[in-house]
Design a protein that fits this description.
This protein is of the alpha/beta class. The chain is 37% helix and 16% strand. Helix 4 links the parallel strand 4 (104-109) and strand 5.
């Protein structure tokens, strides 16, 4: 398999062949996770440290489960109660961790670039679990796997990404990945939530759901990132849902077999109608959660293969 990276810090450094290799392995893990068959403990003998400076439910649980399924020793660090709160710098924390000799370090941080800084200071593989508005690579990869399994391919699709583009690292990573895989990308949202210069990213920008969703294969809704907003970006949640929230009437403009996605957590009745979110014929939101474990298993497995002296996995 082609995967030359030492870290997984973002989608930008990945070659399309590396994306395909990771998704191929993740697809096999996804099928394997649905059975009770043996699992290769490819991370046996390795230590995985999850260091989350931001609260998380899905991502943290997914990384923890992925590591344990592959046999790693997994430690979750409660950063809210760590020495960071006592004034320790991020670099000092990195040096302390480095002295413990972990093999895999999974980091979520509220500031863009913080994970890249950590990667420069440690001697292990670092995985970015989301840093500020920068990137969230494993989310984009699990979204890509969900799309590929639903559509049978990951190229020449029309993908509409709708909502709070400006504050979303998920949107950024998906735009990069889907662009690398030769898809047509549309961004839909109010002007206040579309970044300046977005039209120069090789995407189409729409301020109207009906036009933006026309003949789309995939409709990807985004959460309103209220914690990253420092002003009034929308008139009201009610008005936002009326214009940009996904419901059956708006989805009718997309292709009849278009799939609906959302990275979670969802604000029902704001970004998406609850009935539509639960529609098993259109919504792939729960499958996204399922694919998250498989993608993170694959990412850690491929990075572990590039570690020198990695113990051989065993089957149990």
């Amino acid at each position: 398999m082609t995967f030359r990276q030492k870290h997984l810090l973002g989608i930008e450094p990945l070659h399309p062949d590396e994306i395909r290799s990771l998704l191929d392995l993740a697809n096999s893990y996804a099928d394997q996770n649905r059975t009770s068959g043996p699992v290769e403990k490819s991370l046996a003998g390795l230590t995985q440290v999850n260091m989350f400076f931001e609260n998380s439910t899905r991502t943290l649980a997914s990384f923890e489960l992925a590591g344990k399924r592959l046999g790693a020793t997994v430690m979750n660090m409660a950063m809210q109660a760590s020495s960071i709160k006592k004034g320790e710098t991020l670099i000092d924390t990195a040096l302390t961790l480095n002295a413990m000799h972990p093999d895999l370090l999974v980091v979520r941080h509220p500031h863009s670039g913080a994970v890249n800084l950590l990667a420069e200071k440690v001697n292990c593989a670092v995985l970015n679990a989301g840093d500020g508005r920068h990137e969230h690579p494993t989310q984009a990869l699990l979204d890509a796997l969900t799309i590929r399994r639903a559509k049978g391919r990951l190229h020449r699709l029309t993908v509409a990404i709708c909502g709070d583009i400006a504050h979303s690292r998920v949107a950024r990573s998906n735009i990069i990945l889907l662009g690398k895989m030769e898809n047509r990308i549309r961004l839909i949202g109010p002007p206040t939530l579309i970044p300046a210069g977005a039209a120069d990213w090789g995407v189409e920008v729409y301020g109207n759901m009906a036009k933006g969703l026309k003949d789309a294969d995939v409709v990807m809704m985004l959460r309103l990132q209220k914690e990253r907003m420092d002003g009034a970006f929308i008139p009201s949640e009610r008005e936002y849902f009326h214009r940009f929230g996904l419901d059956a009437e708006k989805l009718a403009h997309a292709k009849p077999d278009a799939i609906v996605m959302h990275p979670g957590p969802m604000n029902r009745g704001v970004e998406i109608d609850g009935t539509l979110a639960d529609d098993i014929n259109r919504s792939h939101i729960q499958e996204q959660v399922e694919m998250g474990v498989a993608v993170r298993m694959a990412a850690m497995e491929l990075l572990a293969r590039n570690l020198t002296g990695k113990p051989k996995g065993v089957w149990v």
